[in-house]
């Protein structure tokens, strides 16, 4: 059997043709033809509930969100510790303190009860991360945020193609940030998008993305010169990468359907692990309110040494598996920039147990079956060794 990587960034349609066109068009920087087409395609995918502006990454979309909300020293941001560094760094850059809270053990998504306990008069925003394309109970989260008049910035880096109660994730917060990094379901190398639901932020987001200038208005012929009007940065996605992205977005239905099928095959094959009395194992679950995009399939193991053994066992069989985040509240920078030192028992325990299995567009069902057979054999051997 040939090697099964953990992820494989793949060409799925007209990427190379569109990229060549973007270069030949003579407009390869941002805000070009492909950028507009990709933004419209993404808006359509998000059921036209948000205004989409492409960015160089999800990180820059999150940084734009922090600027849009005027986050500054004295503000507190509530977020999970079990996330990628950018979720926190974007707000720390503006001088805010981070209020890390725990996740739910079954989904690794932020606990709404924990958010309720962490709210203070200084809370400026809540940043839920839709881990693995699954969400927390968005209705409960939005009710809480509304009751306290706090902004919600969804970290939708992994959410493209997922829904909550029939509505796309990334359309619930005032603002959401998507990622098209090569590890995501829809890719363009490095890229992202800001999805703005609160109309008050649309015009300023354009300015922040354009180095703090009103150049976008100038290009549309709405003003006769552009100038520096606000803080900003260089966050616009080039038309070359937008061309790559558009070709991927054209295949989003097929990509998502296939990934979802692989995800449910894993689930079906490995469901028996949760009944293995010896080890207290877990597998990805999808709450009734979500429709998932098959972004990540994971197992939670008995402990970290057992996880290391399974990684090695699969690697010997040319199958790559990868753990995920190291909790941010325990990181050197996170510790010194948190509101309070909290112990987050679920995060601390599960972060050491979670292991992701291969999932990418050209992975086949029989390969998933092979991986699952090895995983099952591994646990049978572990049982015998007890
Ligand atoms: C939850 C989360 N937020 C933000 C990011 C950052 O995305 P990007 O690499 O597009 O900046 C990632 C990337 O993996 C992520 O998983």
Catalogue the ligands. pyridoxal-5'-phosphate
Low-confidence stretches: none
The proportion of strand residues reads: 5-15%
Q: Round the mean pLDDT to the nearest integer and report it.
A: 97
The CATH class of the largest domain: Alpha Beta
User: How does the overall form come out from the CA principal axes?
Assistant: globular
Helicity range: 25-40%
Spatial strand sequence of the major β-sheet:
1-9-8-5-4-2-3
CATH architecture of the largest domain: 3-Layer(aba) Sandwich
Number of strand elements: 13
CATH topology of the largest domain: Aspartate Aminotransferase, domain 2
Total individual domains: 2
**Largest sheet, strands/sense/barrel:** 7 strands, mixed
Description:
It is built from 14 helices and 13 strands. The protein has 386 residues and is α/β, with parallel strands linked by helices. It has two domains: 237 residues, Type I PLP-dependent aspartate aminotransferase-like (Major domain) (Aspartate Aminotransferase, domain 2, 3-Layer(aba) Sandwich); 132 residues, Alpha-Beta Complex (Aspartate Aminotransferase, domain 1). The protein is globular and about 75 Å long. The structure holds pyridoxal-5'-phosphate (PLP). Pyridoxal-5'-phosphate (PLP) binds next to α3 and α4.
